[in-house]
Amino acid sequence: MTTLTIALSKGRILEDSLPLLAKIGLKPAGDIGRLLRVPTNHPNISLLIIRPADVPTFVEYGAADMGITGKDVLMEHGGEALYEPLDLGIARCRLSIAQKKDAPPHDGIRRLRVATKYLELTRRHYAAKGQQVEMIKLYGSMELAPLVGLADVIVDLVDTGNTLKANGLIETEIITQISARMVVNKASMKTKHAMVQDWLDRLSGVVERG
Ligand code: PRT
Ligand code: MG
């Protein structure tokens, strides 16, 4: 019997992923609770519930055949070792630059200080403009950095814009649109092709376009 392991991102992506999987008839068997490996209503399919940033690694190494994670995570990780066949259209947001509403224009002499958890994406964005910036790596609460003088701007995800607004920040540039993607291990795509393709087709039938 061919088995399939699908790595899901816990947190907000999971909340959007489970309804999508339910639409194609794939459901966790019982409560997920604290379980990290969850059986499903299909005896040959199991789910792994892991941090979004770990999904590319699990899929790359074949610990999972397929996985769902954010495009932000994939771009930051570098996606060449994985197939990315499907935009799931869920957990949509955008990666943007934001600054204090009342910030004076940057003098252009001192290097711009950018706080972000997306070092690679940020480096690439400014490099493409020929601008060298000083990057400060944060793991969360990026919105705080400009308020306390830690950085001039932040590069972070924005959805409704409410978090920026609540902290007196404004979005000055959209770097890229983000949504969750299905990724597939390269070897699994060959050795388990029929099964992988079958689930991809089913998913592709229920994703909302646009
Ligand atoms: O668990 P771990 O710490 O490793 O991961 P995490 O905390 O990043 O997980 P989680 O559950 O927050 O999910 C993150 C993933 O969800 C991201 O990688 C994106 O692909 C996706 N996503 C979609 C978002 C948002 N929308 C989003 N709005 N991730 C984060 N946000 C945050 C944003 O960082 C900001 O703080 O929400 C705030 C902005 O929201 P608005 O609506 O106020 O603009
Ligand atoms: Mg978190």
UniProtKB/TrEMBL annotation:
Any coiled-coil regions, as ranges: none
Location(s) in or outside the cell: Cytoplasm
Enzyme class: transferase
Reaction(s) the record says it catalyses: 1-(5-phospho-beta-D-ribosyl)-ATP + diphosphate = 5-phospho-alpha-D-ribose 1-diphosphate + ATP
A Pfam family hit: HisG
Gene Ontology biological process terms from the UniProt entry: L-histidine biosynthetic process
Pathway in which this enzyme or protein is active: Amino-acid biosynthesis; L-histidine biosynthesis; L-histidine from 5-phospho-alpha-D-ribose 1-diphosphate: step 1/9
MF terms in GO: ATP binding; ATP phosphoribosyltransferase activity
PROSITE patterns xrefs: ATP_P_PHORIBOSYLTR (PS01316)
GO cellular component, one term: cytoplasm
The ATP phosphoribosyltransferase catalytic domain, residue ranges: 51-204
EC number: 2.4.2.17
UniProt keyword Zinc-finger present: no
Domain of life: Bacteria
Gene3D superfamilies attached to this UniProt entry: Periplasmic binding protein-like II
Keywords attached to this entry: Amino-acid biosynthesis, ATP-binding, Cytoplasm, Glycosyltransferase, Histidine biosynthesis, Nucleotide-binding, Transferase
Sequence similarity: Belongs to the ATP phosphoribosyltransferase family. Short subfamily.
Task of the protein: Catalyzes the condensation of ATP and 5-phosphoribose 1-diphosphate to form N'-(5'-phosphoribosyl)-ATP (PR-ATP). Has a crucial role in the pathway because the rate of histidine biosynthesis seems to be controlled primarily by regulation of HisG enzymatic activity.
Complexes and interactors: Heteromultimer composed of HisG and HisZ subunits.
Domain notes: Lacks the C-terminal regulatory region which is replaced by HisZ.
Protein known as: ATP phosphoribosyltransferase
Taxonomic lineage of the native organism: Bacteria, Pseudomonadati, Pseudomonadota, Gammaproteobacteria, Nevskiales
